Amino acid sequence: MGWLSSVRNQIDLGTWSAPEEKKPAQKIPTVAEMVYHWLDQCRSSGLRATSLATYTAIVEHRILCYPQLANTAVDKLTTALVAAWWVLVVKDHPDTPDRNKRAYGKLKAALGLAVEYGYIGVNPVQVSAARRTPRRKNKTLPTTSQLMAIMSHTPERYQFAVCMCLFHGLRVGECLGLQTEHVVHLPGGGIGLRVEGTLQRLKGTDGRMFMQWQPMPKTQAGVRTVPVLSEFTELVTRHIAGVPSGYLTTTQAGNIVMDTSFRSIFNRAKQSAGAPMEITPHYGRNWLITRLAEAGATPKEIGRVLGQEDVSTIVGVYMKVRESRPAELMSRITTTDTTTQKAV
Question: Cys-Cys crosslink for 85: which of 16, 39, 69, 73, Cβ 3.0 to 4.6 Å?
Fold first, then answer.
């Protein structure tokens, strides 16, 4: 009754005001919920299915599988927690520095939305070590004989694809995505292969993985015609002749080849050939770039053949030196002065 009398007295004096209505507490999402929301935003923005699949794989295997990070509410996430997560990622995945860095970038983007929505005031994803350019493992340039040995130990059905990777610089998805319509006859003679897209592994709604062909944007450097080296013309011609239409590389049953299956076939051939285990199909890009440079091609010209727009990557990452090359170059140098001196 005392409280009611007090209220009546305030009303009489004109000093009473209605109590503010209590708003329900705002639900703060976890890091995992924020990451999933960020992926939804990427999907709705029109991101290509292949890129979305890559993003999803990165966050699933580098962010969401770490419960101490993923289950933390975004307003409780600190830079220290992010740093602890980064230490674990680097420890668990020491051989994939580029992918680790991409995971860091995606976590930062997701938490950037949390700042935008007002859940937090400052993005806690601020680890200086994660922002540094990762050191790449120095690849040894494979010899031509090693690559030839791998191809010779590959089942005949897949030799064309291995040839395209090891000696023509195609990426795995690009060579598996080649179809009969991509075969072209070059004006000066010879055969070329028009790279217009790539096969990429995606996860279906049922959880199963499948390969889907994705066309490249017409403005992208990856769209190119790759001339077949003359010494492989017979192999390529024979292979193409055996394919009436459709994909140039298929399984025995005529189905699309999964990239994982192709790599397994490649690894078995590599083991049978006694080649270094570090060689992957991607090493063919190192081999071709180096040989093109030795033939006098400029980085821009090399990039055109390889579908590589970043010239610095060609020079700094892919271009190597053959062991025999220094001796070859030094043998061309002479100390003899060949200029004719005019008699006095």
Answer: 69
